[in-house]
Write a structure and sequence with these properties.
By secondary structure, this protein is α/β, with parallel strands linked by helices. The protein has 9 helices and 13 strands. The strands form 2 sheets. Strands 1, 2, 3, 10, 11, 12 and 13 form a 7-stranded mixed β-sheet that branches. Strands 4-5-6-7-9-8 form a 6-stranded mixed β-sheet. Helix 1 packs parallel to helix 2, helix 2 packs parallel to helix 5 and helix 6 packs parallel to helix 7. The protein starts with a strand and ends with a helix.
Length: 384
């Protein structure tokens, strides 16, 4: 049940972008067709982790539409197979000039991230991004206005269930001094946690490294993600990177695609990733100036320049196997909803038509995921 995706990030599209940006991104698009035809690399999904635009202006997203339409066409995918999160360059800084950062404690963060009201930083600073996003993904998904965590989506490809959680780490971006001043909102992540269901692979998308979050919540967000996801796909860091993040609660793998285009001062990079038998294999690519082509990036890993990583917490026996850690995680995620459903639907269970069967009043306050009710005769027999 192998599947593959293309991870791209940091395009900085602008109506006055330099010529080499146009050339490099056009060649990135055409390379998708070439990798597909020459090497059989066919992405089932595309993940774009932020900095779609350069200044968060409406005109810039017209170029974003052209770019992603062309990219999807070469990949042979529909728009529902593309997932995008914003970055700091998707923030309209002029619209957020007077929206200062006022969160200084967990209590103030909890008050700000209350789900019963929209966030002013979202509605003002992401106005152009939101309008473009909602139009581009019309009838597929919409950009949230009262949370930094978009709804978890379950995608089934080749009998493999992928849970995708897009995160907005750019909410409090103001300028070039954002390091350790950003927030996702632990409260938002708690709500997203309730949406997770059993999956073969869980992926979160984010623009910033977690080190850019405020010390008020940085550790807590990291621990929550360690317990929730298998992979964290990241942007912002303008060089490709892979790293295993470990804590007492578990482990996840971080993959940074690098920047498709920041300038020629940085590598122009992206990565293909294949998931199979509970491991991912990274095939990094980069732009070469002579000749002008996107090709295998030989700088990230030693020869043969690709690398496989086991998915933390999952076994390699079969793709369907799930470790005790993952089972416990899914049990915790599903049990509350399961109990709620039972309370609503089965508040009183009556078993009729069977000899010796009594009506049983069931206490569902602490009902486990699997709860069996047997006839009286069976419960009294040592053979059952």
């Amino acid at each position: 049940m192998a599947l593959s995706w293309l991870h791209v990030s940091d395009f900085h599209l602008s109506d006055k972008g330099p010529y080499n940006q146009e050339v490099i991104l056009a060649l990135l698009v055409s390379s998708v067709k070439r990798f597909k035809e020459e090497e059989g690399r066919v992405p089932d999904l595309i993940f774009a982790t932020g900095d779609i635009a350069n200044q968060g202006k409406p005109k810039e997203y017209e170029f974003a539409t052209e770019f992603f339409v062309a990219l999807l066409k070469e990949a042979g995918l529909n728009r529902d197979r593309l997932f995008i999160v914003p970055g700091n360059h998707d923030v309209d800084r002029s619209a957020g000039e007077f929206l200062v950062r006022t969160i200084s404690s967990e209590d103030s963060a909890d008050r700000y991230f209350s789900p019963d009201k929209p966030f002013p930083h979202l509605s003002h600073k992401f106005h152009a991004f939101t309008e473009w996003y909602n139009d581009f993904f019309r009838n597929i998904r919409s950009f949230p206005t009262n949370t930094t965590c978009s709804p978890v989506e379950i995608v089934t490809i080749n009998n493999c269930r992928i849970a995708v959680l897009p995160l907005n780490s750019a909410l409090f971006c103001i300028g070039d001094d954002d390091h350790e001043k950003l927030f996702i909102g632990s409260r938002c992540l708690n709500e997203a946690k309730k949406q997770f269901v059993a999956a073969d692979l869980t992926i979160a998308l984010i623009h910033h490294p977690l080190e850019w979050l405020s010390s008020v919540e940085q550790g807590k967000i990291r621990e929550k993600l360690v317990a929730l996801v298998d992979l964290l796909l990241q942007g912002h860091f303008h060089k490709p990177a892979t790293e295993s993040i470990t804590s007492a609660r578990g482990e996840y793998l971080k993959l940074a695609a690098g920047a498709a285009w920041q300038s020629r001062q940085y590598p122009n990079s992206a990565m293909y990733v294949t998931f199979d038998n509970n491991q991912v294999t990274v095939f990094p690519i980069r732009y070469e100036n002579e000749p002008e082509v996107w090709t295998l990036d030989t700088s990230l890993f030693p020869s043969p320049y690709t690398k496989s990583f086991p998915i933390p917490g999952r076994t390699n026996n079969t793709a369907q196997s799930t470790s005790p850690k993952k089972l416990d995680k899914l049990h915790q995620l599903d049990s509350t909803r399961y109990q709620s459903m039972l309370k609503e639907e089965l508040g009183y269970i009556r078993m009729l038509g069977m000899p010796g069967v009594e009506s049983i009043k069931v206490n569902l306050n602490n009902t486990p995921l699997c709860h069996c009710v047997f006839p009286t005769s069976m419960r009294e027999s040592p053979n059952h």
